[in-house]
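Good day; I would like, with your permission, to put a structural problem before you. I would ask you to consider whether the tokens describe a fold that such a sequence might reasonably adopt. The full record is reproduced below for your convenience:
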Amino acid sequence: MQPLSQPLRVVIADRSVALRRLIASTLSELPGFGVANIAATAELAIEQVATRAPDVLVIDVQMAASEVIEAARAASTKAVMVVLLASDTAKDTAAALDAMQAGAIDVVSKLPRGCLELELKAWVSDQLAPRVLAAARATSAARGAVDSLFAKRARPSPIVSSPVSLAVASASGRVPPKQAIRVVAIGASTGGPKALAQILPALPSEFPAPIVVVQHMPVGFTSLLASQLASISQLRVVEAGSGDALEVGTVYIAPGNRHLLVMGHPEKSHLELSDAPPEHSCRPAVDVLFRSVGTVFASRALGIVLTGMGQDGLQGAIALRAHGARVLAQDEASSVVWGMPGLVVRHGMASSRPVPLQRMAARICDEVLGLPIGGRDALPCH
């Protein structure tokens, strides 16, 4: 990732004096980062945002992060991107997801207490700094008014109908697809929770395929994310477990720090979790999931690459295309970071033009349920 033309202005807010100073000093030594200001309290963080107009605010989730985000938005004319620091405790996990609802763009796991200074500096350089840079590069879509991830969203109208099968899809105004899709695999990173919260609630309860998802999140976050998504979706949404049978109408979210694989054969497939080494510094990795999906389902799989930093998903998309599967990629304008989908597009692995987030659910339905009679805009997804 190329550095920005101007040094980043970063505010660091953390309850630990030693940690916020170490983060500030380490970031300041890296190319592309200017002098980082520090804040010891939530009130000072809000003041720093209002007076310093930073590009990114890095804040401990336990410093009333949600309230800071709301107050900072009201106090500043410039949209500041927010990166959260959180441990893997239930308290921090809940606070982080609340802050993401308020508009935070990413979350980075803190190292456990007692780590050496060299370990902490490596953590800042290797994990935190790239996420801060990605946040600063967030597209205009992310820099506007940030919708809540889950709160104040209207749940889709309930569907009163018998289960739909692909064989009778034409009865509901769709032309059955030439190739029956048996599984949908989704990969996402930075900005992914918000994207999933847009897509999954728009899919109908009779969606005729299981959905497997890798969302880059720390340990402990994916279970709560699944619960939140389930509360606004017509589909069943769960954190994946080893041995889970793939069931139609269910969304399986890969647990943090575990690779997710699909095993078996198209008529009887199940999930397995793996502690194999990270790929592209990612575990779970989209590439691992996509490769396994291609091996089991071949051309009857559909891959989706959503917003995210880095190159995870590219090799998996190549593997899916080699098996004859189709791959959709989110477009740049609606992506928080157009790293993962951008690479898929630039390498010619997307099966169509990039898809805006607001159209992704409809495109998934087109691929799985078939094209609406009269054109793509003739029917809503459900």
